[in-house]
Amino acid sequence: MKRCWACSYASMEMRIAFPALLERFPGLRVSPWAEVRAFQMVYGPASLPVAW
């Protein structure tokens, strides 16, 4: 089964970026008034409001 190179790149980016972001901003969290909309199975949410 073939996979798009961008899929592998995005997966690697998320494994590296999210832990680094949370390490840099330990108080970062999803905003309590956030409305996560436009969720699509492939593309994910259009936006994710955060607070710290």
From TrEMBL:
The lineage of its organism: Bacteria, Bacillati, Actinomycetota, Actinomycetes, Streptosporangiales. This is Cytochrome P450. InterPro entries: Cyt_P450_sf. It comes from Nonomuraea antimicrobica. SUPFAM superfamilies: Cytochrome P450. It comes from the Bacteria.
